[in-house]
Amino acid sequence: MDRAQDGGNVAGMSGLSRATVSRLPQYLRLLEDIETGDTISSDLLAEAAGVNAANVRRDLSDLGFQGTRGVGYSVPNLRDRIRRELGIEKRRKVAIVGAGNLGTALARYGGLAKRGFDVVAIYDIDQERIGSLIGDVKVQDISEMPGDCGSGLYDMAIIAVPARAAQTVAEGLVDAGISSLLNFAPVRVSVPDAIPVRQVDLSTELQILSYYG
Amino acid sequence: MDRAQDGGNVAGMSGLSRATVSRLPQYLRLLEDIETGDTISSDLLAEAAGVNAANVRRDLSDLGFQGTRGVGYSVPNLRDRIRRELGIEKRRKVAIVGAGNLGTALARYGGLAKRGFDVVAIYDIDQERIGSLIGDVKVQDISEMPGDCGSGLYDMAIIAVPARAAQTVAEGLVDAGISSLLNFAPVRVSVPDAIPVRQVDLSTELQILSYYG
DNA sequence: TAGATTGTTAATCGATTAACAATC
DNA sequence: TAGATTGTTAATCGATTAACAATC
User: Fold this and answer.
1) Is B92 helix (H, G, I), strand (E, B) or coil?
2) How many CB atoms lie within 10 A of CB B157?
3) Nearest-angstrom CA–CA distance, A146 and B45
4) How confident is the model over A82-96, as pLDDT tens digits?
5) CATH numeric code, A18-86
6) Residues of chain A contacting residue B181, judged by C-beta atoms under 8 Å apart
7) Cβ contacts of A79 on chain B, cutoff 8 Å
8) CATH of span A92-207
9) pTM, to two decimals
10) Which of A95, B105, B193, B200 has the fewest Cβ atoms within 10 Å of its own Cβ atom?
């Protein structure tokens, strides 16, 4: 209990460091794919996740999850523990804002449903798109977005609108009470500290690769 | 024989820390958007990029880029310097592997061309898709992929295939001499250390958000 | 000059990892 | 027991930041 890790955490949040949290989904994916055996060693987990074995043991120790010396970690128990920690033990409802190419692609991406995330709403501002079906979800007018959020239809949103619209969309969602945002628009959105945001940008990724390649 | 994640520097002494490199695209975007004035202070850059001003000064100092005390940094000079550092002073040719929803969305994403990345080839294994046009690029049979890479048609690739195909595609590209990979498949691919890879996964992002939200 | 802002130092923070005693 | 593997310590590494002299 003497490992200092208060500084790197999000304000008011419990224990795990950002670095640890970012690795949990990787571990979880592995644990979901495993069919053989019901225990796994930190060595195997580490190799598959591309990290150091000591790092794995420290992460799981921080999680409060115990293994068995000489044996390893229980696969089903660890899987459940990580799911619980990430808050995905039950399905999460997600809205996608922007029904262009990217929004459509994200909405159709089957991997989401498989991991517990249900796309329950898609919004756009373009009358041509409103009313059309993407999968089995109808594209709605973006004016419906705040009300739907406020009434609890969803609590996570993916922003897939053009750069110029992203900040306005983000503010609308925040005002309506959104819990967290994933921003695919190629611009940084600014929101209150209390709302977690992750930004993913294709050209940023390519530019970083340009440096190393 | 893998491990293309974060931490320390990549192959050789490239000079800049990973943290610094990951911030350069943010600075660059700001510098490209600015029209007012021809100098900018570390304070303004920092605020817009969401980092500490001392961090900005340190990054630019590491770049070997000098500002003027009491004045700030030259916008056009800094913009050019970052472009040169990232290796994007000239246009880069990129292939997209997988012409499904995601691959199509990425290919159509205008932000790429605007940032200097030209999608010069799209590959798929599905005969239904081969021959169709996405923008002005024809979808080719994936069997053409290694030859095109070998002949220098492109040197960066975006993997947008299903998880089960990602590792095979990555290996084919590496054998054909690819310089760097951006992997959107929901699985981690393993490549030699010398090839930089970045992995972007939607459900991983959502799972991380689930923890904080 | 007087105010502004850089460039750099030093402290600190956060994260990783080798090593090994504990123990299954 | 003998081998395997955890849990934890301590060292180290990498990155951030406050502070301030230098200087435009």
Assistant:
1) strand
2) 27
3) 32
4) 999 999 999 999 999
5) 1.10.10.10
6) 209
7) none
8) 3.40.50.720
9) 0.91
10) B193
